[in-house]
Fold each of these.
Amino acid sequence: MVFRKRRLALASVAAAAATALVAGCASGTGGSSSGASGDTLTLWTHNAGNSAELDVVKKIIKDFNESQDTYTVELQSFPQADYNNSVVAAASARKLPCLLDVDGPNVANWAWGGYLAPIDVTGSEVPVEDQLASTVGTYKDQLYSFGFYDVSLAFFARKSVLDEHGIRIPTMDKPWTRSEFDTALAELKKSGEFDYPLEMGTGGSGEWWPYAYSPQLQSFGGDLIDRNGYKAASGILDGKESVEWGNWFRSLVTKGYMAKKSGADPNKDFLAGKSAIQWDGSWNAAKNAGKLGDDLAIIPPVDFGNGPKIGGSSWQWAMSSTCSNKDGAQEWLKFSRQTKYFVDYAQATSTIPATDAAAQQIADYQPGGMFEELVQFAREYATVRPVTPAYPYISTEFQKAAQDILAGADPEDALGQAAKNIDNNLKTNNNYAG
Amino acid sequence: MTTRTAAPERLRPVRRTRTTNTRRRESLTALGMATPAVVLLIVFLVVPVALAFALAFTDARLISPTPARFVGLRNFTRLFEDPVFYKSLRNTAYFAAVVVPLQAGLALVLALLVNAKVRGVNFFRTVYFLPVVTSMVVVSLLWTFLYRKDGLVNHVISTLTLGHFQGPDWLGDPATAMPAIILMSVWQGVGFHMIIWLAGLQTIPAELYEAAEIDGATPWHRFCHVTWPGLRATRTFVLVTITIAAFSLFTQIRVMTQGGPLDSTTTVVYQAVRTGYDQQQTAYAAAISLIFFVLVLTVSLVQRFLTREKD
Amino acid sequence: MTSLLKRLSGHAGRVVLALVFALPLLFMLVSSFKPDDQIFGDLGSLRAFLPVGTLSLDNYTDMFERVPAARFLLNSVLISSVTVVLGIIVNSLAAFALSRMRWPGRKLVLTVIIATLIVPFETFALPLVWWVNQLPLLRVNGFHLAWTTGWMDTYQVQVLPFVANAFSIFFFHQFFQSIPKELDEAAIMDGAGWFTIYRRIVMPLSGPAVATVAILTFLPAWNSYLWPLMVVQSEELRPVMVGISYFFQLNVGWGQIMAYSSMITVPILALFVAFQRSFVNSIASTGVKG
């Protein structure tokens, strides 16, 4: 009996040892606790798998590390799909890095939630005032983040196709009106050349929906929330103008102008001639121009009554509130604000540089350049998504409402339910005071 | 089987002679053996789940500047007024009601097919198991392609019916979205339960079949009187695990439909994740999870009660 | 004559079913050698399943450039195999105690363990993140051992929470119950202890169960995605499934996704084929004769 007991004890010890062995495999990297160990700072970016942008980040870090002897910045990249979950998990464990990037519309939420600390970048080469407004993240009059670029949406089409169907190619001075746009779509549909003449990327998911379609809602005169105090969505998101947008949006599907759900790669479909007009990002402008050359028309957004609108604000850089070396973090932020890096970002990612000085160094963005209009769109039409900690919630509700509308829900009901849910959310959270 | 029923009679005297001392030793040894698993389950499951459930009675948010406060049953009263919650419940029940018998039955058929001693049976086992080893995320992506209006499924349908029937946009139509997901889920999971049945089938002693053969039993009789009773323990396992997995339907929905179109595929777990992570309402999501837990526990207990057999 | 017919129809059924199960994955494998344009072009016809058109290994080379795939594979192999080995030991021990030994409270413990199956992981992932970060950790620092707090960013945080598994315990429990109890009694008469019975009698008879549980533990470990995203910050420690979301950036490379998916599926298939043999062998070795 004693003998057998000893065996069991041995087995337990073996199990414990195995456990300890695994424990011993603990990573040696460490150091990420509270974002810095001494003067070594950790930086997170959402660019894993996106080498174009990641390489620019790496270059800035390398330059910074070589430019001085005090601080060292270390990079960790995450896949974008669940970047926010990675950040939230780290925050709950109080393990946020010192430096991190954040999608523009989330800045207010993360600042309110205490993830981010206000930053001071005075004395850097590029003053904040020189930037496009949509590339600067402020909350409660404090600066929390800035981006190197913005993107703009536009309609892309083939001039030859529009000419063939007698459709005017609009300019910024005279954009399409709603009725002109609808007539154009009807004409294209009638031709029978396209199953769906309009491609707006309805197969997308997540933030794409409010980013791509809520500016159209705003052009109709509606909005996601009453921007005066951000205390109510009812009467705005389900107001007359918003419902009007909903009816129009739905009609695109019922009239067969647009697919209820786009294919896996809408841009590829457009370039293959499956659709005539594509609502897409400036990031595909270079690809389109390369394929279509002079035939490519870059068209401003439709004026549905309240002027053409596009969404503003993309990824931006910020500092965490738990950063144990805020001086170092701000040094890096300041260092990065050099015109050459604004240029690098724009060139590497085909985005719109956040400053004029940078735009002037890129041939295509200069006056007369191939993509000058895209810069103008970003400057003239960009509307930021509501700057409120409630935004992530608003975004999900709008997504669902818009998707339901395309699937056949009554626009008034869908938007009404969304407005009601947002109001409830604001109420239970005391309007995100604090 | 015969040995089973005879055993207790034969062993009773042996048991009676055991002293309380041996009993105590048996208990202690058993505890020692169970301890590693139990401790790990407590640390990594019971504690965090208890924490999660406790959140259901607070106003905790995913991101918030203020600590969570106790709010009583507020989340639950809100939940019972939420129309999406009822839709989620209905869809979940619908999915489980179809998937449980379909998958269990089909898996058993497959297991019987590949339990035969024929050439190439290993090959078939492997092929049927293929979808199981492919991650659900990948499988969902693949089928999203196949289910498109101009996708392969419709192409096959149109070819088989000589062009008389054009399939719908499977995932875009509220009427077909859930059936499409059911079909894919069974396709993905059935190989796994085939293996479970197979493991069960192989515990049935070959002599029982031989004896049945000698008695001149038909295959159906053999199944009813040898196979089916021999799978008793396996049956419970298959039933309980498919039921629980079916109720937890989530990944497919997340990748393929995000609950749409028009809430036709939203499920309880999908709703919990959407409200908890995307909408940052941690406490509300916790309330959903707690209700879900109670419901599924009830179903499982009823199931266990119904399938229980006299020992 | 009829038996031949029967056998043929049985085979026909097996073949048709095999097609149904294999085709979507064949699509994945075949697409991994095609350029994106062709994948979409072939989508509406049987060409989707055939290696026709322009075929190359480009997707594979591109994929390795985009993701540190080798490192991720290595990590997953390590994480999954340690989880499987520890899981088999820990869970079979517990199941043995629950199914073959008599002690007060075992019914209750089993019920509670089955109940834990019900809670989907997603719903308590966040509290678990917080919780594992409170746990003590023994770190090796050169030749020193030092206690610190927090398990974030380690291998063990990807292993230990998934070692004890209610599914496995339940499965072993059900399986052990079908092994005649007389074997234990006879062994005890011969003076064997419970641990000997476990090791020498029950486990050797449980080949199919061990194989099943190995697969059962391996699959979720191999496919884990949300958890490593939340608790692992260093790229060097990430497992394979996280890699797949590297491709869902601005320019989605569908061909690369197919290549990556094919690559991460092959090792598990190999594992299955290996373990699958132990089912077959177990028939011969079964000593269950009553």
Amino acid sequence: MTAKTARGGRRRREAITAGLMLAPAFIGVVLFQYLPLADVLSTSLRRVDPFTRAPVGGPSLTNYSEILADPDFRRALLNTALYIAITICLEIPVALILAITVNQRLPGSRALRAAVIAAMAASETVGALVWSQMYESAFGILNSTLAALHLPQQPFLTSEHQALAAITVMSVWRGVGLPMLIFLGGLQLIPQEVYEAAKVDGVGPLRTLLQITVPLLKPSLVVAAFMSMLSGARIFTPISVMTDGGPNGSTGNLIYYSYQQAFSFQAFGPAAAAAVVMLLLLVVLSVAQARILRSE
Amino acid sequence: MLVKHETGAIRTAVPAARARRRRRTARSAQSVVLSVVAFLFAFPILWMFTSAFKGTKAVVEDAFPLTWKSFVPAHPTMANLARLFTDLHFGRDFVNTLIVSVAQVALTLVVATLAGYAFGRLRFRGRDVLFAATLLGAFVPVEAMVIPMYGVAKHLGLLSTYPGIFLPFAFSPFAIYLMRQSFRSLPDETFEAAKLDGAGILRTFWHVGLPGVIPALASLVLIQFINSWSNFFWPLIAMQDPAKQVAQVTMAGYADNANTPLYGEIFAASTLLTVPLVFLALGLQRYYVAGMASSGLK
């Protein structure tokens, strides 16, 4: 046996083993991700007779033009963008400050770390139910605290202007632990000498943060921002538990819209079209994000 | 963010003592701030815990105006817990949650480890294309795919079964990505050495690959456990059998009670659902940090 055929045999064995190792993932991904995705795409392009439910004609964009004309859909699109924007703008800076603080090992930082981790362990339903109670406008603990401090009462979830932010704050409270841990992992990779050199050069703390820590954490920032974006886009359980999309449609996002179209109005075509729009939005945002962070 | 003062060379003890004192006050001020922030972060959980021992009426009445009773039950009662385990079958629902979560975590570990190793350590044609195709799944928000997923589950006869609840979530693109990164970040020399010793592919995987990715596996356990434990929307739709329903769904039902939500029971159930996960998260957080650092995130 020459070396070449032995190598070839090993390579073939490697390919076969790889195939076997990938088989479970492949079957699962096809069944539970690609099939539903294909189904959503085809449903979104299908016209259905409203009475017989039979498909009519070939593929068309009717469902898309229908939802685009729907003010509720436009509101849901705007709300989705708001959820994503507020989540990223709150979660990433807060997680970064927490990680840097916790990393300094001051007394009290262990308690802080444990508190953030504990919030992470509360499920979406638990978080939504407990915070609903806290936000309660008539007898909630947040308003009674404001009253005790002689500050004006807030409507929170009953206000069109505050409900979306209130839901996002709950979601960030739960979600900030993961980016914090990602940043802690990133901080461990930064050699201490870098900071010592900065100190010797007399670089101030703020400049150290912006010019040394943040650039060196970029790989972690990219991952954390991506995950933060996805979690902001996927808020659903809190909406259905806390506000049911209200008041006046101010908290419904694309997922909630799609769910309502399907389960309340049996409008499966528009529901699928809304899901596709959601998907495209995520892809576009991710590409944009990757570009921005890479070009910096 | 305060930085320790550069004291420089100190000739006499007096300024040194002063600097030390100043440093100490700065540090204690920081600790006070940190403790306050920690308390605020923990507040919803602490309040949930203390409210679990109040009746529904007390939860509502004690909150306004703000007194010590708002935070601590004046007359602690076990009635909520008792009701949970008698009329509301919370024990059964809790066990259901545990079954589907453990199964989801275990299956995710197996699937992601095998796929991650193949993508990260083996050479074969079309590897990168397949990997990209897997990653595409990360963009598909499961919540937006519930209707077609319902169709798939129906065809496979998975509706109202335990596997129907956890299977759709066990093939996580993120998990496969994380395992691939972790396997790739291991030093090549050990793999070369195993090859020279004549170890086959599977033996190399078992003895060289797996021991190196323990932190990544632990962080997957944490993430997937939190995700599966949180799962609400899918079981709400795909599980029609009340005997197998998960606790997150049944608990949300306590809020839809006829006249007032069952606040006492909600807080008691929330506490029982949160406490085990808090311990799990506190135990596994170190590994998550290490897993994130070791996977290099390059």
